[in-house]
Amino acid sequence: MTKNIKYYLIILLLLSGGFLLNKLLNNYEDFEKQKIEEQLNKAHNSSIVNAKAGIDVYATLVSSIKSYLKNSQTFPTELELQAYVKDLLSEIDFKDPIVINFLDKDHVFKYVVTPTAIDEAKLKGVSLKEIKPQESIDKLNELMLTDDITLFAPINLREGWSGFPFNFTVRNKENEVLGYVAPIIDVKYLLDYFYEDNNADKYVHKFLVNDKIDLTREVFYDGSEVFNKARDDQYYKSYNIEEDGYIYSNIELFGLKLKVGSAYKETPLINQNISRIAYAWYIVVSLLILVILRQYSKNRRLNSYLNNANLDLKKNLHKIQNLIKEIHHRVKNNMQMISGILYMQMDEYDDENIKSALQQSQNRIQSMSLVHEKLYGTSSLKDVKIKEYIIELIKHVEDTISTNSSETNKTIKVDELLEFDADTTSNLGLMINELVTNSFKYAFLKTSENSLSISITKEENNSYTLTYKDSGLGLPDNFNLETAESLGMQLINILTEQLSGTLKYTKTPESTFVINFRPLGNTFKN
């Protein structure tokens, strides 16, 4: 009964987990949708802010032209008006097209001025009544009754671009109406602000005049004749975007209402892979839990068996460890016995060369014996702490060879935690034994203070560098490490090669051996 209740509880937890996962994924999708909407709003608002900066430039231009005409003692000629416009545009760095038209009260063109030409479109003497419908003429008649600046709907100019016509009344000094001036500024200048953030590849913008007529940077689509052959490559109708994909804002331009819409060219898709992966993992985990439950009863039966087996394994492991320790102990004892025999043999000879050779052999055996002694005392039975080993090795050599009355200064720069396997330590120990022996026998003076230094550092390529220095005068200048005939130096060369290393020697400023090597085993630590 208890077993069945456990199954029911697990199934209930799995169902609850599925419900919670579904809720979390729905929240994730809502959050991603919100992020997409916020990005569009941010891009749209940024474009509106930029466009308002352009409107300020428009307002400055038109107001400046109106002030100039109002404050002139006499109404300027075309050339005077052109010169003023040139100066004005140079001050504000305005490089887009602009046309200044002056029409009399009967709507006949009197001036048609651009910064670079006069009457380029051949409109002087032409009546606007021949071009514009009566509705527009009536609005212009109303305009001449006020002093306001009024922006009319954009027009397609004969000069080949689409422009915003600003209109205001002009009077003489007697306050008589002379007609009106219509500065026409390039639509493209204003609409380009909507593409300044280099997001043209991501967003599309819609521009509606009076909430119905399309405006682009090149052409105004109101049914009138189009003179510009270029077309705006960002025209919103070139993209298949649903109306509900746009967000809108309204801009007031001197009485003209401009409605601006922004939308994604391609609405970013919410990554459904996360949901698929999450559901897949939920199913996999649920199946695994059911399988685990099924195996649980089997595992309990196996546990008691494994516990017993583990006890047996621990006993066997303990026996093996004791056996390895005993082996290291016996190897050490055998080497100590050999060392003792060599020591006794030294008394049988009077030849100092033979005695020296036996003593050096004894020290070499002692360096290897010390490895097994250190292994015997470790818990791993395979790695040796190098600094501790080097200190004892140097002490042994000093005790058996040194004849100096003064104490030798010893500097050991080795990480306390550095460990090497037995084979690496043996080779390293033999090399250090030879170097230290040579220092005490040949380099150190008997009556002055002597010093030696040993350091081991790890390199970036997982190799190590052994640096040995002493205070002696160093090897002769013509000494060749590779062709040296002494057993000690030959032994150092052989051991360096076994450790895949390199050996270098420098005499100045100190006598220094530098041995770069790689440990033999895979069990060494930093």
Could you describe the 3D structure shown?
With 526 residues, this protein is an alpha+beta fold. 47% of the residues lie in helices and 20% in strands. The protein is built from 9 helices and 18 strands. The protein has helices spanning 2-71, 78-92, 134-143, 187-191, 273-346, 352-376, 386-401, 422-443, 487-498; strands at 98-104, 109-113, 150-151, 155-156, 162-171, 177-186, 203-209, 213-215, 220-221, 247-253, 256-264, 383-385, 408-413, 419-421, 450-458, 464-470, 502-506, 511-517. Strands 1, 2, 3, 4, 5 and 6 form a 6-stranded antiparallel beta sheet that branches. A hairpin with a 5-residue loop joins β5 (162-171) and β6 (177-186). α6 (352-376) packs antiparallel against α8 (422-443) and α7 runs parallel beside α8.
Fold topology:
Layout: H1 2-71, H2 78-92, E1 98-104, E2 109-113, H3 134-143, E3 150-151, E4 155-156, E5 162-171, E6 177-186, H4 187-191, E7 203-209, E8 213-215, E9 220-221, E10 247-253, E11 256-264, H5 273-346, H6 352-376, E12 383-385, H7 386-401, E13 408-413, E14 419-421, H8 422-443, E15 450-458, E16 464-470, H9 487-498, E17 502-506, E18 511-517
Parallel strand pairs: 13-15
Antiparallel strand pairs: 1-2, 1-6, 3-5, 4-5, 5-6, 7-8, 7-11, 8-9, 10-11, 12-14, 15-16, 16-18, 17-18
Helix pairs in contact: 1-2, 1-5, 5-6, 6-7, 6-8, 7-8, 8-9
**End-to-end CA span:** 56 Å
What is the 3D shape? Answer: elongated
Give the tally of β-strands: 18
Largest pleated sheet: 6 strands, antiparallel
Strand-residue proportion: 15-25%
* Sheet/helix structural class: alpha+beta
The SSE string, one letter per element, is HHEEHEEEEHEEEEEHHEHEEHEEHEE
Sequence stretches where pLDDT stays below 50 over 5 or more residues: 522-526
Separate helix tally: 9
Give the overall pLDDT as a whole number.
82
The level of helicity is: 40-55%
If you compute it from the alpha carbons, what radius of gyration comes out, rounded to the nearest whole angstrom? 49 Å
